[in-house]
Batch of 4 targets.
Target 1
Amino acid sequence: MLHKCIVKITDGGDGRCVGEFTVETEHLNRKGSLHGGLTAAILDNITTYALMSKGSHPGVSTSLNVSYLAAAMPGDIVEVDANTVRAGRKLAYIECVLRRKSDGAVIATGGQTKFVDMHQDAKN
């Protein structure tokens, strides 16, 4: 069964994207906290939106990393803040932090490197 997670975009532009979502029952792992796979998927999407807000092609991921630091439980509102560190001609580097809104505790950090040179000459 496919579940949805709605991240509401609250701010952004010029290489940044900020959003938030509420942890729901369908977002949980077997231990009852926010599932790590969903956390990674959200990080992947929000960092891509941050990159696109800089006018860059969304590219393809060459590296995605997540460090899990604290649990988010049902009902918690999680803030997601992504920032484009550098967007070059071929590669872009984006970082991200997920925080529990109620106390600012960092739930996860991470980022990704994306290949963005998608306009290669067709002869290559």
Target 2
Amino acid sequence: MSKGRSPEPLDFFIWTVEDVGLWLEEINLGSYRQVFEENGVNGEYLESLSMFTTEQILRFIRRCHMKWGDFITLCKELRRIKVACLKGEQEVRKPWWAPSCLSVVFVRLAKRNRQSRVVSMKLEP
């Protein structure tokens, strides 16, 4: 992800630690950015939150020094992104890292495979 540019929601599960930090700023949880970076929280880790046990969730909250309300906000925002991906509401942009000759192919494939990319995500409240 290029510096200062908001991460692409469609691809949140491949976000880097820096992308997660930018997203936290975007959802008004920027005060946790440094602690998330220190703990290496990336998109793959955020995706796995929905499969955490209660004990793992409590450990995460303690390690990141999160307030319950902020953790709930984090979960709601993650759920919002997942639902938007499933409904096909996320805009697909060419990836910043792809050479221009491949980015058109990527966007076409992403649009076609949008639902298959997120089908394994749990959406239970």
Target 3
Amino acid sequence: MKEDLEAVVERLKPLFPAEFGVVAAYAESYHQHFAAHLAAVAQFELCERDTYMLLLWVENLYPNDIINSPKLVGELQGMGLGSLLPPRQIRLLEATFLSSEAANVRELMDRALELEARRWAEDVPPQRLDGHCHSELAIDIIQITSQAQAKAESITLDLGSQIKRVLLVELPAFLRSYQRAFNEFLERGKQLTNYRANVIANINNCLSFRMSMEQNWQVPQDTLSLLLGPLGELKSHGFDTLLQNLHEDLKPLFKRFTHTRWAAPVETLENIIATVDTRLPEFSELQGCFREELMEALHLHLVKEYIIQLSKGRLVLKTAEQQQQLAGYILANADTIQHFCTQHGSPATWLQPALPTLAEIIRLQDPSAIKIEVATYATCYPDFSKGHLSAILAIKGNLSNSEVKRIRSILDVSMGAQEPSRPLFSLIKVG
């Protein structure tokens, strides 16, 4: 059609008087011919490929490659040839196309997840890439969605925008399925040789997904949070699994604080740190950002467990000297924990004041000074409750009940503070 019309413009037009409108006569004839054929074709129940080709021809190739081709645009643009199909017919075809693409994307993503889950169940080790456990699942899913987007955009940019909305429904549904399949694997696969390596590979997957969504989807932050939600859960459950054995090993070591009545807290903590240090190589195949996140989780665990031991209520110190000595031990331990965790990549600066301020509360003797310290502490950690405060004040055996009551009252003022974005004391149960 394009070559014929170009021949009309270049060869026939110069042979006819202008009033004959020879180009318009040919163009309108060709247009009507094709429009009639396409109208007939559109009445059939078209397969997916035919629907795509029809839309591609009507909405892209015909208007852009023919009507607006360099040799024809000057001749045809003002003729008002219009579309080869009526708008309503095009909308119906677009709806069919979008529905088919959604089903295709869903099927391809489900198949990719099924194959991946089968590899986990069959204990197939993950690939290693640049020293990290690697899975192709994220890449497969990104390719599936990108190809669907590119296919729609090859018809029109507007259809590309429409399929993006479709994908923003399909992708979260897939990620929830992925999360469920992964949780199932966490429960059932514990005895498998490559269990931990596959857990690490799936945590690493979250980085590829997250980067792709942040770079390519350009959606509002709340939509992005919704998309990333299942990945956050997957990563969190993966971390819990990786740290589970270490947590079990640390339990009896932390209990030594109370069993020895804090007689040798420095040595006890040294044993704890040494145990953690020997286990860190197990996490070396995580991506760097996830090693940091896991180290922050470990940092939180150490601080939390230390506070739990302080809050047991088994240690009551009657004199200021005893309290100052314990505060000195806590400060030394706090410095050791902070130094060790930050040295190994923990970004948790928010945990830095957790133990030193408790040490200061134990060291101080003036109830008014203690109240000020508690008020400051509650702004750092809004989940620090009266129950937690009472457990710490119970160590100070020289405080009267009325003094304890006055100190506790400061939290009545602070209770209006916002919920903590990062929980600490809400993870600690007190009697």
Target 4
Amino acid sequence: MAEQHSAPEQAAAGKSHGGLGGGYKVIVYEMENFQGKRCELSAECPNLTESLLEKVGSIQVESGPWLAFERRAFRGEQYVLEKGDYPRWDAWSNSHRGDSLLSLRPLQIVGWLR
């Protein structure tokens, strides 16, 4: 399977830092089981379907965590995605009514160190 990288995908892969200086990285696929067109992100994306993908079928979180939303512009039901593989929508959602994921952002955890 050939991997496709488009100009919008490269633009979306900006630098962002999380945790203790680590980066964020997630790979989003159009089809289930990590097939089809893919998009790598390291910064927030308010609309995955605008120019990057037609839909979200599976996700691989390489470093994170990430906060995923069922609607564009970080709205709707939220899902916390930790490092790991999510081969289809029911791997990240317990909801039987919602199988869409349209926006993503790194989840920045800020706390006090004692």
